[in-house]
């Protein structure tokens, strides 16, 4: 069957009778402020009765091979997370670096539940109506992280969350309390990075998180602006850049990440780097290969070769980023502990002095 010419409207399924996957496609299933600019409905098919019509999956190249998780550090962290019923993005998103990071004492936990109010085209976290807000979660997270520090040698924790657009503050109060309680419980023996949502542009909510002063504040733009309608239909590129700018203006070490191979062009990646530096002076950039979680998510457009990732790294450093992690297996939390050592270590003395002025004891 010939391929239809490109049009300005979304494509429709080429074969009748194929159901759309029940996962909401193309935005927030609960409510929207504005009408979706693009629908994934015509792109997303399921396997029920239509296997012959499904797009052929691309074979992974040899450089996309992750080691099986294992080792005492990994198993200790897994046991503690399970005992305290904590969700990790490492598991929810099927991160290929989970074994390496957990063995090194780095983990990414997810607060505010495991159900997201958005339905991004790339993400494998489930979408739906979240359960009742767990007000006891910050206390439980802090105690669990303390146990991971003492029992499994945790050095760096990345805290992220689903989107909770049904909440007035997007969950920012829980965010701030979680950071503060975790730092207090771990006696400053742990560095904290947060990977936050956009809070729908609620800058007062964002300020609550900034005031908790995590060591690194991360918000992923995920892809180039042109791809937003398909990749992040409930988000806005300019809003994400504004968030990064506000965090940088507040004196935070800022970080963002993108995935490639989902339909962007190389020149768009370089333009994105320029924009992030010009408008937000972002410190850290991560770039990794997009991997399709299931056939019901956006397909892989290309596998980016390692040499291209090397060029991305060189170009990012030349454009002013202090750290660029770029490689096929790189994810947002990859080498996060090393980034803290590089960017925060030199400011540790002044950080501790500030904490003492505020009446907080430190272990400098």
Describe the SSE topology.
Blueprint: H1 72-83, E1 87-88, H2 89-92, H3 98-104, E2 106-111, H4 137-152, E3 156-161, H5 172-185, E4 191-195, H6 203-211, E5 216-218, H7 228-231, H8 237-249, E6 253-260, H9 266-280, E7 284-289, H10 306-318, E8 323-326, H11 336-343, H12 348-357
Parallel strand pairs: 2-3, 3-4, 4-5, 5-6, 6-7, 7-8
Antiparallel strand pairs: 1-2
Q: Could you say which overall geometry the principal axes of the C-alpha atoms support? A: globular
Q: Determine the structural class based on helices, strands and strand pairing.
A: alpha/beta
Care to count the β-strands? 8
Helix content: 25-40%
What order do the helices and strands follow?
Answer: HEHHEHEHEHEHHEHEHEHH
Notes on the structure:
By secondary structure, the chain is an alpha/beta fold. Helices cover 34% and strands 11% of the residues. The protein contains twelve helices and eight strands. Strands 1-2-3-4-5-6-7-8 form an eight-stranded mixed beta sheet, with helices on both faces. Strand 3, helix 5 and strand 4 form a beta-alpha-beta unit. Helix 1 packs antiparallel against helix 4 and helix 5 packs parallel to helix 6. It is globular, with a radius of gyration of 21 Å. The chain starts with 71 loop residues before the first helix and ends in a 7-residue tail after the last helix.
